[in-house]
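Okay, any thoughts on this one?
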Amino acid sequence: MSHSSKLVSARRDELDTTHEQLSLFAPRKTGEQRETTSIENGTEKKQNSKIAQAHPTHPTPQGPAGVHRTAARTKKSAAYSAADIQVLEGIAAIRHRPGMYIGSTSTSGLLHLIWEALDNAVDEAVAGFGKHIWMSIDREGWVTIRDEARGMPFDPMLYQGQYLPAATVILTVPHSGGKFEEGVYKTAGGLHGVGATIINALSEKLTLTIWKDGRQFTQVFNRGAARPHQVTTCDPKLHGTQLHWLYDRSIFDAEAYYSLEAIESRLKAGAYLNGGVTFHLDAWDDATNEQIRRVFYSREGLPDYVRDLATGTSAPLFKHVIGIAKEKDSVQVEVALQPTTGYKTTMYSFANAVRTRDGGVHETGFKAALTKVVHDYALKWKIIKSREEDGFRPEVIQQGLNTVISVKLTNPQFQGQTKDRLNNAPVEGIVRSIVDEGLKDWFEKNPASGKEWLKKILQMQKARNEAQLVEELARTGNKKNGELIDTTLSKKFLKCNSNDPERAELFIVEGDSAGGSAGQGRFSEFQAVLKLKGKPLNVAKADLRRIVENEEIRTIINVLGTGTRDTFDIGRLKFHRVIIATDADVDGLHIQCLLLTLFYQEFSDLIEQGHVYIACPPLYSVKYKGKVVWLLDDEARIQFIKTHPDAQNLEFKRFKGLGEMNPKELRDTTFDPARRTLKRVSMEDGVLAARLVKELMEDENAEARRVFLAEHSRKIKELDV
């Protein structure tokens, strides 16, 4: 059930029938199930018609029948009374609105169940109970997480007039648990008391096993409902808690899966953040068709984490990692950072070992201290004359920096159950003070490395100032050296009529041939086309000036309207769907990879907010019983032959590129929102994406890139990398 492949289907959005999530790391496993829409596969037509009805292209007729229905609805809504009020509590509330608790019912929500169980086990280990945590995922999707801590209490407690085992209450009643009492857990990550309840509520079946004081407690739950428990004797040396569950397929998306890469990344981070704790992983890998085993342990903690980040980014500027660790006002602060020769900023922050993806006060405090100390020593060592005139921009100081920030505190104030942001106001000043002191100490003890770092920042600042003029030129569409880059007139860009970004779509296509067909086949009301000339620049190692001076990239910046890096503003985005459409051959794959690298490095917010897609036109067509049938890929062709044996000897036409389709064919299969298939690009983990970029896009890895692209051009089902 777990997958090492990263290309999977995502939930359908409002406009497109099928969107599949795509991260930048590896191809889809052969044989993975997918849905198509009007591109026939045998069962999709009915489903597509329902979606078309839900989102009609034309206004609903307002004849007598329409008036009658409106009146009926109005009459019904007028009879609003107490009888219409429903109160959902506990398990029922979680199952009814799972997104409120786990963010979504896609892959990220499925993984959130694991994070909840893992966080509870880590909290016990950090509190001093146990040094090992085991996780396993089998082929069918059963997950097991076990610790060697004290064991969840299961002695009777009075709840709503009846005595129940405490463990039963914990798994069936939200906001129940042992982390509310002051002093029980000094730095717990799970403080809402709903984690175990969520796992139980969203599982088809869950088995809880507890070993405590020579007794073993076992209880089975079906979709959150508790069955009778059993208590037996066991070896007194056994202690700990084990959760064993199968997620409820009626709640989660059919395409949701356990990403091994995301899980390994999380366990590795857990080892770095919790020194002395060993994480054991035993999971089924669909890619290799075998059970894999991994052990994660770190001796040095965050410095090891930063060194690991460097393997997926540019080379470190100097060998050693800057480490800062101190406790102040009962808040433990640990920071590790290392500048690199590159341009990509990588910053991960944690609160009580919980990843805070949206940052928070600890990140703010770190950035403020970093900016201040860098300027202090740039002035002291006369690298700049005046902060007011020569001062560095904060984003330039952070450019090329790999940083991990960890704080541990009592009663963290997270933003929501997903804990993506830390909001404890006093933590900002504490982190700022500790980092200020630690960085000053480092600069004093390492003047040679410190000056090297500051000179690199100065060079980047100068390059940024020079490139900003070029970038502004790209955004505004003026002339430079007589070259017109105004997108309203450019032959490369075919604009759409709509000025509504939420409706507008931009297709980035390969070459004049595809561009010509695309220009005629598109829905010009809301679909624009940008025709690329040749292969885009490999931005993996290019500086900003070289990037914005490149004609193709400058045009993309201009067309998108957002700017890039410090001038980036997603609010200026002109198209909420940016769709990459390339041919299904080695060159097309190479262009696709180059474009994904560009978007990852320069427009990562567009990927993270779901604006970037891959077009998936059908690879085959066949004329069957007088009708042309479109088939998405090899799998669809095989299924069609299985269900239509008389089609075995028919000629199946394979389309290598968009230019081989006429405008009508392209319109029906690639541009029509009701019938096309798109794959949404997402980044499950920035580190994994950066590693792929480095491994495949660096100059010295040209041979590995060639082999990779050649291999996957043969595997048509795996063409979106």
